[in-house]
Amino acid sequence: MRRTRASPRLPPRRQARDVRLTLVRNATVLLELDGRRVLVDPMLDPAGARPPIENTANARPNPLVELPVPPAELVDGLDAVVVTHLHRDHFDDTAAELLPRDVPVFCQPEDAPALAAHGLAATPVETETEWEGIRLVRTPARHGEGETRRALGPVSGFVLGEVYVAGDTIWCPEVRAVLDERRPRVVVVNASGARFLESAPLVMTAAQVAEVATHVPLVVVVHLEAINHCLETRAETRAAAPAALVPEDGETIDLDAILAERVS
User: Fold this and answer.
1) Full DSSP string of the chain
2) Average pLDDT in the 11-19 region?
3) DSSP characters for 27-87?
4) Which residues lie below 8 Å from residue 46, measured CB to CB, with a gap of 6+?
5) Position 263 confidence tier, pLDDT thresholds 50, 70, 90
6) What order of strands is seen across the sheet that includes strand 163-165?
7) Yes or no: is domain 3-263 CATH 3.40.50.2000?
8) Where are the chain's structural domains?
9) How far apart are CA 254 and CA 259, in angstroms?
10) Model confidence pLDDT, tens digit, residues 58-79
11) Residue 178: phi, psi to the nearest 5?
12) What pLDDT is stored for residue 53 in this prediction?
């Protein structure tokens, strides 16, 4: 299986059509698609820069862990950015300061004014668009249920080519519909069962990750062990969903190679 363990440096850029994923931290992922580098949900603040999320059981300042590489290295040489929504564990002050101003920042329409106010090239996606030969599709998501979901505001997922970044969502009919209609080869799932003291989960639990894994060739699980209200661990997720890949921070996965192994 072609995986590389956590490294102090990002992998060198490839011009090949290989699809690779590097988990940076939390939901921050570097996707390499057809030789292009796309940074998803940049949370680049140093560890402990922000207070804990309120009304949660684990009152530790966020982020809980440092970035595996310097933020300046992460933003160097990017071709695009995707921001699924504006919660600070997906787009923070350091990202607003360091992201390049000359690359598109694909987002949901509701977030475009705030991103543009930072001087970024906000590029709202109503439903779908084509960029550099790659089809981008914005998808629905449920960030929890009921009143909690309404209070957290709109969130989205994005399909980039054959990779579906589900975003902050629980397992729900909308996600199942994306899997059935788009048939992505890879799904990147935000897990951990994050929640408030008296709420249901806001993102997928380990059991829900296992359900997703029955519908697609490859599930990559992120959004673990970096924010104070993310309760389920990597070990728990691996135990509940052994078919899924649960990378460490800084780990790079050659998605094409793993898919080829699973088919052979």
Assistant:
1) --EE---SSPPPP--SS-EEEEEEETTEEEEEETTEEEEES---PPTT-BPPPSS-S----B-SS--SS-HHHHHTT-SEEEES---TTTS-HHHHHHS-TTSEEEE-GGGHHHHHHTT-EEEE-SSEEEETTEEEEEEE--SSSHHHHHHH---EEEEETTEEE--S--S-HHHHHHHHHH--SEEEEE-S----TTS--SS--HHHHHHHHTTSSEEEEE--SSSTT--S-HHHHHHH-TTSB-PPTT-EEEHHHHHHHHH-
2) 67
3) TEEEEEETTEEEEES---PPTT-BPPPSS-S----B-SS--SS-HHHHHTT-SEEEES---
4) 63, 66, 67, 94
5) confident
6) 128-131, 134-140, 156-160, 163-165, 186-190, 218-222
7) no
8) 3-263
9) 9
10) 899 999 999 999 999 999 999 9
11) -60, -45
12) 95
The pair of three-digit structure tokens given for residue 88, joined into one six-digit string = 């600070």
In percent, the amount of the chain with pLDDT more than 90 equals: 90
**Residues with Cβ within 8 Å of residue 195, at least 6 apart in sequence:** 56, 144, 201, 202, 229, 231
130-139 burial code (b ≥16 CB/10 A, e <16) = ebeebebbbb
Q: Tell me phi and psi for residue 17, to 5 degrees.
A: -85, 10
Q: What is the pLDDT of residues 220-243, one digit of tens each?
A: 999 999 999 999 999 999 999 999
Say if CB 248 and CB 72 are below 8 A apart: no
The one-letter code for the residue type at 63 is: P
Q: In what order do the strands lie in the sheet with 252-254?
A: 3-4, 252-254, 19-25, 28-33, 36-40, 80-83, 104-107, 121-124
Give the tens place of pLDDT for each residue, 182-206: 999 999 999 999 999 999 999 999 9
Average pLDDT of every residue of the chain: 94
